[in-house]
Amino acid sequence: MNKEPREVYMISGGVTKFARSHPDKTFQYMVKSAFDYALKDVPDLTLKEIDGSVGSYFSDHFTRQLMAGLMVHDYLGLCPKPSKRVEGGGATGGLCFQAAYSAIASGRMEVCLAFGFETMSRVNTWKGNEFIALASDTNFDYPVGGFYTGYYAMMVVRHMFEFGTTVEQLAKVSIKNHGNAIYNPYAQSPRKLTVEEVRSSPMVACTMSDGAAVSILASKEKCFEFCDKPIKITGVETGTDAMRLSDRPRGKVILLPWEREEDYEGLEYPGVHSCRAGRIAAKMAYEQAGIINKKSIDFVELYDSYTSSEIQAYEDLGLCKYGEGGLFIEKWIPSYFQD
Question: In the chain, what are the domains?
Answer without folding.
Answer: 8-123+207-232 (3.40.47.10)
